[in-house]
Amino acid sequence: MGFHPELFPDRIPGFKVFKAKFGSQAIEPTSNPIEFVLGALLGLTERVTLALAAKGGGNYAYRSLTSANAESLAAGKGIFANAPGGSWTLEQHLIHGSSPKSFLNNPWIATSSDINVARSFSSGNGLIRIDLSKISANSMQRGWMNLPGSSAGYHYSIWQQEVSIFGHIPQNAIKIIK
Amino acid sequence: MEEIRFYKVSEPYGYFSNFSPHSIFIDNEKWNTVEHYFQASKFNDKEIKKKIQLIESPMQAAIEGRDKKNILREDWELVKENIMYKALKCKFTQHPKLMHNLLSTKNCIIIEHTENDNYWGDGGDGKGKNKLGVLLMQIRDELLKQVDDELIVFPPWIAFPTISQYDLFWRMGSGEEYLTQWSKYYLATNTIDYRNKYPETKEWEGIYD
Lengths: 178, 209
Description:
The complex is a heterodimer of chains A (178) and B (209).
Chain A (H helix, E strand, L loop, with lengths): L12 H10 L10 H10 L3 H10 L4 E5 L2 H8 L4 E2 L9 H7 L5 H4 L2 E5 L2 H6 L6 E5 L8 E2 L10 H8 L2 E5 L1 E2 L4 E3 L2
Helix pairs in contact in A: 1-2, 2-3
Chain B lengths: L2 E4 L17 E3 L2 E3 L2 H7 L5 H9 L3 H8 L10 H19 L1 H8 L5 E4 L18 H16 L9 H4 L13 H16 L2 H7 L12
Parallel strand pairs in B: 1-4
Antiparallel strand pairs in B: 2-3
């Protein structure tokens, strides 16, 4: 089964921004809808799409911090993946991210372009906004644009709007919201 | 027998208070504190429940839950202790450090000491029912019978039974915090014994491999 936008109408980046602008939902815009829709129509890769959106400004992702993240940020070091040199692919991150082996192998950092999703996972250590224009385009991926529809990680990556960032998020890309 | 008295969050054993800032996940929903969940459970009206869920502080949640203009569910008096038990069980299984603190009280008597409450607390003079303390001791005693190691961290499918292993929850914030503690415990312990005692559910099949 492939991606069916009609099944996830409120999770399509462009539509989400439309609702933020003209609807009643109190959510923040996540991206430039024209660039995203254009990118999807043209069949561009997610990296190019993200890079285009970031260039236009206002393209953010959000993450609820762990205590280790908060310590690293307080030290001015940004945020590191559990295993920055790990060998896991994006799909392994999305599917096996809850495994104990994630701490040995996972070089990906999970964020969401939906602030409400990220906020719902708060551990009391803070919520950050990440300016994606300050992240290398090659270091960001959206699983739902990469994985086959049959993959277990596919639907969750759409539903929860995950933007997976490879290795490290630099301090200057991060703003602490709360 | 030694007594442990608690009431304010900022005082010793304050983590036993329902106002302590420890979120719980029940039926796939997050509640900022046990107090939030308990107060919202008083009502059938979904709007009131949602309103309480979105309130930031447990004190404000308690005030809203006690507002006489909100209509209580008819069976509240019958179900309130079970609801409190369920919420407390979640709190202590979902926050391993709190569970370890609870288990370390062994056979001490736990008392919510306050003159503000004769039912959940001791009424200040010891004549109250201390139902909150009783439930905490009940959960502690049940857990002590269940575990071999008082520093155990339960597998995620036991602590958070409604959250899928693929959920983003596990990759940031409180979920990742829990997994960090679980992984460290699991990798440092006798993994074969642990796996035999806590086999993965079908939903979590393969997680140990």
